[in-house]
Each structure stands twice: as structure tokens, then as C-alpha cells.
Amino acid sequence: MKLIVGIGNPGSKYAHTRHNVGFDIVDYLAHKHHVKFSQKPKFNAEIAELTYKGNKALIVKPLTYVNLSGIAVLKIVEYFNIKLADIMVIYDDVDLIVGKMRMRELGGHGGHNGMRDIINHLKSNKFKRIRIGIDKPPLGRAMNDHVLSRFSKEEEKRLVNIFKLSAEAVEEFIEGVFYTDIMTKFNTISNGIDDEK
Fold it and tell me: Taking the model in full, what pTM does it have?
């Protein structure tokens, strides 16, 4: 069984902010496959169950707020006995511009507190991830204000293709396609997307 985790903050106050792009992508994936999230208090998360080409996956939105994402992830991993190699985390990245994505097989947290917490709880960085560009804050704006801001209409248009690509990448991961092949395919596609702001 695969575990797909979107990182974000719960509640309408944070809906569709830059920090919640992980939530938005797993919502897109769930909608595409006609599955619904339900709250699972014992896991501190909302969970949807998805079967793709005969392979099962849990789609998860931790409800612990971004900085404590590892609490929910560890509970689910331990309960369902999920292997590190079967985990994928989708999260925002200020080092990528809006409209870009990058897939990695492992790595550090890159300054992202949610990723730092997941790595600390799992005691490993050996899980898959999709980084979604949200751009750096403009001059004079604090980082916290930036990640909790919403995308402009123009940025939202550029995210449409990234949501689609990310969902397709997740599907291939659930299907069991060799991860290096998935990375090569989707990183190449993302590199080819027009990156003019």
C-alpha cells in the first residue's frame, strides 16, 4: 500500500494559500478519482482510500498544522505498516517558481518545517517527494506572510497544469512504475514548461 501525503494547514482561514498547495493537489487527486476524505481523529488526519489499476493507496491530509505534520504521518505509517519506499509527500517550495514541480527520491527538508517534522518522526529522509513551486516572497514581505498568502489569478492559471502533472505522477507511483523513470519523465516535462512570470 502506498501513502500519499499532502502538507497544509486545516481550516478555511488557510484554504488555497501557498503553504496549502499540498492539500490542494491531493484534493484534486481525490476529486479526479471520485473518492472522499473522512476525518480520522486517531490519526490526526483526513484520509481517502484510492485504488488505481488494482493498487491501493491512502491519500492523507494531516490536521496537525504544517509544522507538526510528522505526528499524523508516523501514526499512519505504524498502524498500516507502510514502508518508507512507499511514502510520497507533496509540499510547497519557495525555491521553485509558481508553475514548476520537482520530484525527488530522498533528501533534506530544505528549510520546510513540515518536511523537517516528518523526517524527525520517521527518523529517515528516504521517502519520495513532489516539490511544488510557490516562489520566493517579493522584496519587503516576510516569509510567513508570503507562504500564508493566496495565489494571484495569473498564478492560479499556471498551477492548473502542475496539478494535472502531479496527479499523473502520483498515479504512476501508486501503479508501481519505477520511481527513477517517474522522476525523469515529470521533471523533464516541468522543465519544459514556460517559466516566464
Answer: 0.94
